[in-house]
Amino acid sequence: MFYHGIPPISIETLIHRSTTLSHLLQLHSLLLKSSLYHHPSLINHLLISATSISLPFSTSFFHSLPTIPPPPLFAFNTLIRAFSNTPSPQESLILFKKLQSSNLYPDHYTFPFVLRACGLCSFVGVGGVLHSLVLKMSFGSDRYVGNTLLKMYADCGFVRFARNMFDEIPVRDVVSWSSLIAGYVACDLPVGALNVFCEMRLLNEKPNSVTLVSLLSACTKMVNISAGESVHSYIVMNCIEMDVGLGTALFEMYSKCGKIDKALRIFNSMPRKNLQSYTIMISALANNGCREDVISLFNQMEDIGLRPDSLSFSAILSACSHMGLVYEGRNYFDRMVRLYGIKPTVEHYGCMVDLLGRAGLIEEAYDVIKNMPTEPNSVILRSFLGACRNHGWVPSLDDKLLSKLESELGANYVLAANIFSARASWKDANDLRLAMKHKGLKKVPGCSWVEVQN
């Protein structure tokens, strides 16, 4: 069919070639001028292209469409899916509500996107309502919908509901198993994750790399080197490709279990690495006291063209702090701000305070706290006060700063009382200890865990 001499197929070609917001605006104008504004296929194609270029334009275009007749269901699904992959997944739920108010009905493509949004927002109540609607509309036997329901409950922290959902899925696939295993790991139940994997193997279901990443995370949480090595053996024996995610999970497991040499060998053998891989390896090396390797690896990361982000600088600054690299820490902080234009966060300032405090540069650390654009949090203040106590420097802290410490943590009362005692402010120190006693707080003794080989 032609409208004013323009075939829709030609406009579809233009839509597929659009790459900028300017292109989208011109195409929008063309649809209006050529009376193609109600053409379902063109609306769908334009929304598909628009969501990958400009989500604000996609939203504006969608809401400008006539409500009678309503936009096609495919258009709703496209925009709901787009928002479910953004930092604002709740917009998917708003669109779903608008869909329900039209004369359209959601299909088996709609529910997975909306359920994903519920999981990301931890809206388990809304997810439960959607679960009822899924059953009412006879989509309960759909494997894709069932897997997403399972993951939604796990993401919301209701792993028992996720397990019940898993048991109700008539035909399970590797996604079902992987989602349940990841759910146990996310809910800090690593033993449950390993038990599910044992069930999976008994039924001769083959795991994929996603499954194995979750299993390695479970081993990391338990610091279980034996289980981790078993997973590694499975990867090698079955010739599973060592992609970035799997390789990163594997060397992180070895590093957390104290096998830093093996972790480094795996990292170096990986054919592809990304920024996250480098960041985790830098933290692992720092935690194991590998001073030279930390600096070398960060420089290597920059040399191959990877641009450090906020997390990367948090890792290197923390490494400098724990290894006493004051000059290097100052240099990295300066490069972060001046060279990469990254605005320091509270975590970055905290690393600098900790670095300077450990090195005995208490006054400089105090200057960092006073010049922070935001209020220091309790972690920074506790680190600073601990450094003051360790180095015998008595700060002239005001009550406003001391009030930032958590009032329900006994260790903070003891630390602040010790500072007041060092200043000979006996009344303030005694008041703090009395307040601590009145609230029934106690300082939990420090402890260490050492695992000895049999």
Main sheet summary? none
Tell me the Rg in angstroms.
28 Å
Shape: globular
Q: Return the CATH class of the domain at 172-271.
A: Mainly Alpha
Alpha carbon gap, first and last residue = 80 Å
Number of helices: 26
What is the H/E string?
HHHHHHHHHHHHHHHHHHHHHHHHHH
What does this structure look like?
This protein is mainly α. It has helices spanning 8-17, 21-33, 40-51, 55-63, 73-84, 90-101, 110-121, 124-136, 143-155, 159-168, 174-186, 190-202, 209-222, 225-237, 244-256, 260-269, 275-287, 291-303, 310-323, 326-338, 346-358, 362-370, 378-391, 399-402, 410-422, 426-438. Among the domains are: 172-271, Serine Threonine Protein Phosphatase 5, Tetratricopeptide repeat, CATH 1.25.40; 273-325, no CATH class. Helix 13 (209-222) packs antiparallel against helix 14. The N and C termini lie far apart (80 Å). Keywords: Repeat. This is Pentacotripeptide-repeat region of PRORP domain-containing protein. InterPro entries: E_motif, PPR_At4g14850-like_plant, PPR_rpt, TPR-like_helical_dom_sf.
Which labels suit this protein?
single chain, 454 residues, mainly alpha, Serine Threonine Protein Phosphatase 5, Tetratricopeptide repeat, 26 helices, PPR_rpt
